[in-house]
Amino acid sequence: MAKNEAGSILSGQGGANTLSDRVYEQLEEGILDGSILPGESLNEIKLSAEFGVSRTPVREAIRMLEQKSLVRLVPNKGAVVLGVDSNDLRDVYTIRSYIEGLASRWAAERISPEKSKRLREIVDLQEFYYMKSNPDQVSEMDSRFHETVFSYCESRRLEHMLKDLHHMILHYRKQSISEAGRTEKAIAEHRLILEAICSGDGDEAERQTVIHINNAGENLMALLEKESKGDL
Asked: Torsion angle of alpha carbons 194, 104, 222, 138, nearest 10°?
């Protein structure tokens, strides 16, 4: 990353409050999307020059990455990237299967006509973009559907945990849903979750959500296995 490019990126990060937050966001994005590979070392001096900042915000950003278990501090070597491996992905999908179902249950218990309409519009849009062969918008609607359900559960703690898990695997979720055949199935699964939530059926909303997550997880692991064997 060139220094002037990094500087322009940092100046454009409106959501970050400090330089360390902005450096962290860029490094995290690189690690999660695979452009910064596991095993790479994060050199404070080099990163300071690339981002056009002092070593202090870089050091703080690396500390934040360590707290997220995305890097490991190694004596005499500095921060080494861990990234997200297949074990992490399995863990995330297993955890999601337990707590995201709860979010759907609570959303069903607290749904209103206005919220039902909004949720239905999102699924309709996802199907529309699928029919228009627009995978980027399909993925965007996929994330929006889940995040909307999180917000409808009306639990800040649960919403925060789920958003964090989704963010960690966003790159892989985009990869999975774009696979031939998976998008159509995912939309159909979203509709089953939607109908259960809108009808106020917490049991069914939870059950359909767990099925959806398990299907998505199995699809992703199969896709990664194909990649590892060079079948794709």
From this structure: 40
The sign one gets for the Cα dihedral 195, 128, 183, 174 is: negative
pLDDT of residue 170: 85
Residue the block writes with tokens 């790159």: 171
pTM of the predicted model over 0.70: yes
Helix axes 86-109 and 156-168, enclosed angle (nearest 10):
150
**Same domain flag for 198 and 103:** yes
Do 220 and 162 have their domain in common?
yes
- Listed as ranges, residues in the chain with pLDDT below 50 are 1-9, 11-16
Q: Into how many domains does the chain fold? A: 2
Q: How far apart are CA 141 and CA 121, in angstroms?
A: 10
CATH number at residue 177: 1.20.120.530
Helix or strand run (H / E) with residue 231 = none
Single out the residue in 81, 113, 136 at which a domain terminates: 81
Q: How far is CA 114 from CA 87, 121, 196, 199, 202, in A?
A: 39, 11, 16, 13, 18
Q: Are residues 109 and 199 in the same domain?
A: yes
Based on the fold, state whether residues 104 and 135 are members of the same structural domain.
yes
- Chain centre distance of CA 133: 22
Task: State the Cα–Cα distance between residues 224 and 165, nearest whole angstrom.
Answer: 19
Residue 207 backbone zone (phi > 0: left; psi -120 to 50: alpha; other: beta):
alpha
pLDDT given at position 227 = 77
